[in-house]
C-alpha cells in the first residue's frame, strides 16, 4: 500500500528553527511536494523536490533522500504567521499526489 | 476572476438530496482535481481530469461523478448525498498532470450532510 507519515503536531518558539519530517512508501516516485495550509484556508505550494539534496527558498528549505524514502521541511526564523499545517505529498507512478495527514505547527512567542 | 473559484462556500444538505459543487479556473490549466479533506486524514483524490473531455477515478470515487466539458469548469456531483460525505471539498488545477507541476487550490466548499 501507499503511506505517507508525518508527525501530527509540533510546537516551536518564535525566532527558532523547526524541522518537519516526512517518510513515504509509494508505488513509484515522481517528486515530493510540501504545502502550507492555514486553518480554514486552501493549501498553498511551498516546495518541490525530485532529486536528492536540499532546496532552499528564503526561510524555508526542503530536503529529499529517495533511497531512505525521507524528506524534511526546515523553517528558520519562525514567525507567528508560520502557525499552520504543513502537508507532505508524493507524486506516484500515475502522477497522482498521495498526501500525508499534515503536521500542525504551533508557534509560541 | 483570478485563479480558482468554488461555489458554494458552504452548504448543509439533507441526506438523499442531489448536489453539485462548482469549480472554475481561469489559468487555462489542463489538469483539474477534486479532493476531500477530513480531520486526521490527508487530502484524498475523488476524481481528476488530465485534459478537457477526459476524466478518471481517484482513491475515493464512489458516490461522486464529474464532467469536463471545457477547460475551465469541473463540477462535482453527489447523486444522493450520505452523511459520510460530510467533508471539506477542494478543487485544484495544474498546468500539466506530469511530474513537477504544482497544483493550485480553490478556497474549498464545506459540506454537511444530515
**Percent in strands of chain A:** over 45%
Looking at the chains present, what oligomeric state does this protein adopt? heterodimer
Mean pLDDT of chain A: 96
Number of helices of chain A: 0
Task: Please characterize this protein's 3D structure.
The complex is a heterodimer of chains A (109) and B (114). Chain A is mostly beta strands and 109 residues long. Chain A is built from no helices and eleven strands. Chain A has strands at residues 3-5, 9-13, 18-25, 32-37, 44-49, 53-57, 60-65, 70-75, 84-91, 97-99, 103-108. In chain A, the strands form two sheets. In chain A, strands 2, 4, 5, 9, 10 and 11 form a six-stranded mixed β-sheet that branches. Chain A has a five-stranded antiparallel β-sheet with strand order 1-3-8-7-6, with no helix packed on it. In chain A, a hairpin with a 5-residue loop joins strand 9 (84-91) and strand 10. With 114 residues, chain B is mainly β. Chain A binds chain B through residues 4, 30-31, 33, 41-45, 48, 50, 87, 89, 91, 95-102, and chain B through 40-45, 48, 58, 90, 97-100, 102-108.
Which labels suit this protein?
heterodimer, A: 109 residues, mainly beta, six-stranded mixed beta sheet, five-stranded antiparallel beta sheet, 57% strand, B: 114 residues, seven-stranded mixed beta sheet, four-stranded antiparallel beta sheet
Short description:
The complex is a heterodimer of chains A (109) and B (114). Chain A is mainly β and 109 residues long.
Topology (elements, then pairings):
The complex is a heterodimer of chains A (109) and B (114).
Chain A: E1 3-5, E2 9-13, E3 18-25, E4 32-37, E5 44-49, E6 53-57, E7 60-65, E8 70-75, E9 84-91, E10 97-99, E11 103-108
Parallel strand pairs in A: 2-11
Antiparallel strand pairs in A: 1-3, 3-8, 4-5, 4-9, 6-7, 7-8, 9-10, 9-11
Chain B: E1 4-7, E2 10-13, E3 19-25, E4 31-37, E5 44-49, E6 56-57, E7 64-66, E8 76-78, E9 87-94, E10 104-105, E11 109-113
Parallel strand pairs in B: 2-11
Antiparallel strand pairs in B: 1-3, 3-8, 4-5, 4-9, 5-6, 7-8, 9-10, 9-11
Amino acid at each position: 500500500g501507499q503511506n505517507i507519515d508525518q508527525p501530527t503536531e509540533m510546537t516551536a518558539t518564535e525566532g527558532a528553527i523547526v524541522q518537519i519530517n516526512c517518510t513515504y512508501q509509494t508505488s513509484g516516485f515522481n517528486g515530493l511536494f510540501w504545502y502550507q495550509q492555514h486553518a480554514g484556508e486552501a493549501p498553498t505550494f511551498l516546495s518541490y523536490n525530485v532529486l536528492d539534496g536540499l532546496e532552499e527558498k528564503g526561510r524555508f528549505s526542503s530536503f529529499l533522500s529517495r533511497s531512505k524514502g525521507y524528506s524534511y521541511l526546515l523553517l528558520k526564523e519562525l514567525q507567528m504567521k508560520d502557525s499552520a499545517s504543513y502537508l507532505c505529498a508524493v507524486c506516484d507512478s500515475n502522477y497522482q499526489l498521495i498526501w500525508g495527514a499534515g503536521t500542525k505547527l504551533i508557534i509560541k512567542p | 476572476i483570478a485563479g480558482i473559484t468554488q461555489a458554494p462556500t458552504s452548504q448543509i444538505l439533507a441526506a438523499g438530496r442531489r448536489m453539485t459543487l462548482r469549480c472554475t479556473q481561469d489559468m487555462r490549466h489542463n489538469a483539474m482535481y477534486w479532493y476531500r479533506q477530513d480531520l486526521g486524514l490527508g487530502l484524498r483524490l475523488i476524481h481528476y481530469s488530465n485534459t478537457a473531455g477526459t476524466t478518471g477515478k481517484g482513491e475515493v470515487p464512489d458516490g461522486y461523478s464529474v464532467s469536463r466539458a471545457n477547460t475551465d469548469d469541473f463540477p462535482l456531483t453527489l447523486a444522493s448525498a450520505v452523511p459520510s460525505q460530510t467533508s471539506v471539498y477542494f478543487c485544484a488545477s495544474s498546468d500539466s498532470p506530469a511530474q513537477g507541476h504544482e497544483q493550485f487550490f480553490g478556497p474549498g466548499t464545506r459540506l454537511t450532510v444530515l
